[in-house]
Amino acid sequence: MQRGREGAWGRGFLESEDMFDLDRFLVRRKVFRILGAGFHVYDPSGNVVGFSEQRAFKLKEDIRVYTDDRKSTELLSIRARQIVDFSAAYDVVDSAEGRKVGALRRKGWSSILRDSWEILDDGDRPIARVQEDSATLAMLRRFLTNLIPQSFHVIAAGERQVATMRQHFNPFVFKLDVEIGGDCPVDRRLILSTAILLAAIEGRQN
């Protein structure tokens, strides 16, 4: 096992490539942050394996993923294509390679009552969709209470569920538990980016 550096949360920061090898991880919103938003990524043992920052005062959404909260190495950028976009699209770029690995696109009309996203490849071709767990629960969350935790299913070709993202019940700190199937054909960088984008958007709305 690789030895990590001590992080701000009193646990070890693992090497950056470990984050993209995980079948399960937790995205947790950083508390007591005044400007923008920050998210730590934890492995199943509670080690911090990454950090994401949602930049403040940007007309277009701009989220970066780093190896740690000192922002030692930038791994990914998640950027909105337009300032205002009902069917918002976000390009995911591998910062080290300087190459787009895919995109995430919100399905505007479908998301009014039940959140729905598409995961696109580097040529903007749909390869999977992300669907809020239940139309009934989605309606309850929107019109009655936001205390019902959300869950999202990642559905690939052939209607295979290849990953799940479940919000923890916690009215104060947004946490999203992500579990990826061993046969998931979607690039792990896109799965991670989806989880962080959902945490940024849904965490801001709750």
Short description:
The protein is mainly β and 206 residues long. A hairpin with a 7-residue loop joins strand 5 and strand 6.
Describe the structure.
The chain is mainly β. 13% of the residues lie in helices and 39% in strands. The protein has helices spanning 135-143, 188-205, and strands spanning 5-6, 12-13, 24-29, 37-42, 48-54, 62-66, 74-80, 89-94, 99-106, 116-120, 126-132, 151-156, 160-167, 175-180. A 12-stranded antiparallel β-barrel has the order 3-4-5-6-7-8-9-10-11-12-13-14. The longest helix has 18 residues, at 188-205. The relative contact order is 0.15. Mean pLDDT is 82; it is low at 1-16.
Helices, strands, pairings?
Layout: E1 5-6, E2 12-13, E3 24-29, E4 37-42, E5 48-54, E6 62-66, E7 74-80, E8 89-94, E9 99-106, E10 116-120, E11 126-132, H1 135-143, E12 151-156, E13 160-167, E14 175-180, H2 188-205
Antiparallel strand pairs: 1-2, 3-4, 3-14, 4-5, 5-6, 6-7, 7-8, 8-9, 9-10, 10-11, 11-12, 12-13, 13-14
The average pLDDT is 82
Amino- and carboxy-terminal Cα gap: 38 Å
Radius of gyration: 16 Å
Largest sheet: 12 strands, antiparallel, barrel
What is the general shape?
A: globular
Q: Number of DSSP strands? A: 14
What's the number of helices? 2
- Structural class by secondary-structure content: mainly beta
Percent helix, as a range, is 10-25%
User: Strand order of the main beta sheet, please?
Assistant: 3-4-5-6-7-8-9-10-11-12-13-14
Low-pLDDT ranges: 1-16
Q: Report the portion of residues in β strands.
A: 35-45%
Order of helical and strand elements: EEEEEEEEEEEHEEEH
